[in-house]
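chain below, 207 aa
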Amino acid sequence: AIDDRASGTPSTCAYFNGADNFAVTDVTFRGCSTGVSVNGATGSLTRTLIEGATNEAVYFTKSCTSETLTIERSTLVGNGSYAVRMSDGCSTGYLYVNLVETVSAGHSYTFWNSGSSNTSTWPQVTYTRSVLDEGLSNAYVNINDDSLSVRSAALFADGANGDYRPTTRSPIRNRAADGGAVGYVDYDPLTAVPTPGYYGWYWDDAA
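prediction:
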């Protein structure tokens, strides 16, 4: 884990510049200014938890070439205003973001493009079997979704204290293609915390 909460001057926890096919797996980033910054690089974040960054969980930019970032089975929580902020300022190439079986909660927006408003260079975003508990995006993003994702309260066991296990009625718990939980934390029905109260479609276990 990389934890920058005690530094007093948070910085970017991980930075990939021009690195092709980088892969981050089973890493936790906490309290950074930006969890992961990617510039002119293609790669993946898998089983990654990014929480408490002051600006955004991920910042993704290009160097006038097309780049792809895949975020899979990860949990992004409470990272400033944005889960994934992009900048497409160069007039050539595209940014492609694939959000797969991931949970994003506690931001103003999941996706945000702070670069050009030129429609020919908007980032191309796809989210699949994911749970999004926030606004989706600003106008300068092309978005493709599937019918198996939901925009819903994540219903963590105790998100305020960093317990991101899905509760018994959480939409996280069985949304993955293999029938398991999406996000960073697996679902164990034997130890799961009951969902309190009524939230949208998901009720508590009390009769």
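Residues 167 and 193 are 5 Å apart (CA to CA). The radius of gyration is 17 Å.
thats it, cya
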